[in-house]
């Protein structure tokens, strides 16, 4: 403002007032210096170009940060949201921004527009529910993004912002309840390190594996996921054994089924990977079914016998009587045959 005032008054440029002008310039210069290195914000520590405002219960980003700040820590505070107003002044030299552990729920549009040279951004240990697609400008230089313990419900589609990070080489999505990585979720081209540890992955779709294979320089961390070791994991197992991309593949373990629990995935044989619906399972269930049917038939048979016991008894008596009559007939004939007189008689009569 004062500079504009000077120019709009030609009289100020007259020789007698020269000293006054230089004095004013001096004042302006002092003001500029004061503005550029205005002291360290309250509750922060500044040393060279690093500013640390840690564990101070701050509920917003301190304003009036030195404009030559290179590394900024605002961690362990209570900042529930950041928006375009959080960084109102240019921080052209800022390369590293750490905002871990702030109970942060929302990241608004254009938050990082005032820091064109940002390379490392750490938003870990927050509870982000909304993350604006336009939070980070298109022409960013971001290379390392830490989103570990950030997502509550593993909703990766919330992170559309990832599609615009054309320089990203290091992405951590650790401990974020992620259930699946579909093909095309992680388009970021130059990605080199992808940390997916401690999520809720049970399978990795074949198309995603193929997509990973197309980026041979990509390294992936996958331990701490509850892999389900049934027939559907077989494809992934083959891929794992033939790939050098998964750095911690020795540490992957099965969570399911019970028989394979905590078994290292790499030590599971293909023959152990079974699915309900496999031939063996079908046979097993059909044997059980057959057994049940036979048991049921047996029970019905016994029941019929029991209900009809009188008839059966009578029938048995009848049979017994019939037998007795028959036997008596035999007995009688035997007695006749064994009587010698009758035998002689019969012999004589035969003759
Ligand atoms: C800081 O601000 C002052 C004046 O406002 C300016 O002269 C200086 O170049 C700025 N420094 C940086 C690194 O932007
Ligand atoms: C954090 O901020 C919220 C309001 O945004 C407040 O209710 C809560 O008490 C604060 N927590 C701490 C530990 O200061
Ligand atoms: C990401 O943040 C977590 C938690 O703050 C930390 O343990 C981890 O080392 C960080 N990862 C990277 C790549 O900086
Ligand atoms: C994982 O995230 C939960 C909250 O989502 C947190 O309580 C827990 O400490 C985190 N674990 C690690 C190892 O960071
Ligand atoms: C995931 O996030 C997207 C975008 O924010 C939203 O439209 C969708 O409803 C969310 N899905 C779930 C299951 O929360
Ligand atoms: C990138 O991520 C890996 C694995 O998380 C880590 O070891 C490495 O230090 C990270 N590199 C940078 C530059 O942060
Ligand atoms: C994955 O999706 C991309 C497009 O998003 C496609 O070009 C590629 O062929 C797909 N890969 C597989 C294996 O389906
Ligand atoms: C194993 O990996 C190589 C490249 O690393 C690939 O050419 C080959 O097709 C893979 N084999 C199988 C069975 O996936
Ligand atoms: C595997 O797990 C062990 C024990 O937790 C750990 O020391 C080791 O670094 C892990 N290996 C890899 C490659 O992450």
UniProtKB/TrEMBL annotation:
Domain LRRNT positions: 39-71
Listed InterPro entries: Cys-rich_flank_reg_C (IPR000483), Leu-rich_rpt (IPR001611), Leu-rich_rpt_typical-subtyp (IPR003591), LRR_dom_sf (IPR032675), LRRNT (IPR000372), Wnt_signaling_inhibitor (IPR052286)
Cleavable signal peptide: 1-39
Transmembrane segments: 287-307
Gene Ontology CC entries for this record: plasma membrane
Gene3D superfamilies listed in its UniProt record: Ribonuclease Inhibitor (3.80.10.10)
Descriptive protein name: Trophoblast glycoprotein
Organism of provenance: Seriola dumerili
């Amino acid at each position: 403002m004062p500079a504009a005032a000077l120019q709009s008054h030609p009289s100020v440029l007259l020789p007698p007032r020269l000293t006054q002008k230089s004095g004013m310039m001096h004042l302006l210069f002092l003001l500029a210096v004061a503005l550029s290195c205005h002291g360290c914000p309250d509750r922060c520590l500044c040393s060279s170009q690093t500013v640390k405002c840690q564990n101070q219960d701050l509920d917003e980003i301190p304003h009036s940060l030195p404009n030559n700040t290179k590394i900024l820590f605002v961690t362990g505070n209570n900042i529930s949201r950041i928006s375009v107003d959080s960084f109102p002044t240019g921080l052209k030299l800022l390369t590293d921004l750490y905002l871990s552990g702030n109970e942060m729920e929302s990241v608004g549009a254009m938050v990082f527009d005032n820091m064109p040279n940002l390379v490392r951004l750490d938003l870990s240990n927050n509870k982000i529910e909304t993350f604006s697609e336009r939070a980070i400008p298109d022409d960013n230089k971001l290379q390392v993004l830490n989103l570990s313990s950030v997502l509550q419900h593993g909703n990766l589609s919330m992170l559309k912002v990832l599609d615009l990070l054309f320089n990203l080489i290091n992405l951590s999505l650790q401990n974020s309840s992620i259930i699946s990585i579909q093909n095309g979720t992680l388009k970021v081209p130059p990605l080199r390190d992808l940390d997916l540890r401690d999520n809720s992955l049970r399978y990795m779709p074949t198309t995603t594996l193929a997509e990973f294979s197309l980026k041979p320089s990509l390294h992936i961390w996958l331990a701490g996921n509850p892999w389900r070791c049934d027939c559907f994991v077989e494809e992934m197992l083959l891929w794992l054994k033939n790939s050098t991309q998964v750095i911690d593949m020795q540490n992957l373990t099965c969570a399911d089924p019970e028989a394979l629990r905590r078994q290292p995935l790499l030590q599971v044989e293909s023959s152990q990977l079974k699915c309900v619906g496999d031939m063996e399972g079908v046979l097993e269930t059909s044997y059980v079914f057959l057994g049940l049917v036979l048991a049921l038939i047996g029970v019905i048979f016994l029941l019929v016998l029991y209900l009809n016991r009188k008839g059966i008894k009578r029938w048995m008596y009848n049979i017994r009587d019939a037998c007795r009559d028959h036997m008596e007939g035999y007995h009688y004939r035997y007695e006749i045959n064994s009587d010698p007189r009758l035998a002689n008689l019969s012999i004589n009569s035969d003759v």
